[in-house]
Amino acid sequence: MLPQVIIIGRPNVGKSTLFNRLVGKKLALVDDQPGVTRDRRFGDADLLGLKFTIVDTAGWEDLDPETLPGRMRQQTEASLVGADVALFVIDARAGVTPLDEEIARYLRSSRIPIVLMANKAEGRAGDPGLYDAFALGFGEPVAFSAEHGQGLADLFEALRPHI
Ligand code: GDP
Ligand code: MG
């Protein structure tokens, strides 16, 4: 069985685009509207020869704001079951949002390794977000562009020790 790598992050950070980039096929639905993907999707990823099962998650947007903190913790914990590593994705252009911080809080208490990815970092537009991302406490973020396929070698280096 291949190691399982799960993609976690708030809606619209580029999780499904990352999934498609790593699988190389259009398996996950990507849309300009946040929250188009509904379920978890599994794909066979090949990252510069590193092979693993990649899991795209969705459904964060369906959480009721009233019960958000508890439900989000549940959802995060449920997603991590069976995973060997989590890719925690933020939007480098948007910087770190309160929802990112909330997710980070739950991930910090998990025992699986977390690789922080600052997506949408093509060009220099993501620089402030990259700087902010350090404060989340997961070490140096991998600057990435799922849309343009940039950062693959850095992601490889960050993932390899864990799988
Ligand atoms: P998800 O909700 O986290 O699964 O996000 P999606 O993968 O559906 O992407 C949300 C939006 O961000 C779409 O409009 C994507 O085209 C866009 N997007 C994804 N990756 C990148 C990237 O690397 N750079 C830029 N500029 N936009 C991206
Ligand atoms: Mg999605």
TrEMBL record:
It comes from the Bacteria. Residues 3-163 form the EngA-type G domain. GTP 1 binds at residues 9-16, 56-60, 119-122. Associates with the 50S ribosomal subunit. Belongs to the TRAFAC class TrmE-Era-EngA-EngB-Septin-like GTPase superfamily. EngA (Der) GTPase family. GTPase that plays an essential role in the late steps of ribosome biogenesis. This is GTPase Der. It comes from Novosphingobium fuchskuhlense. The gene is der.
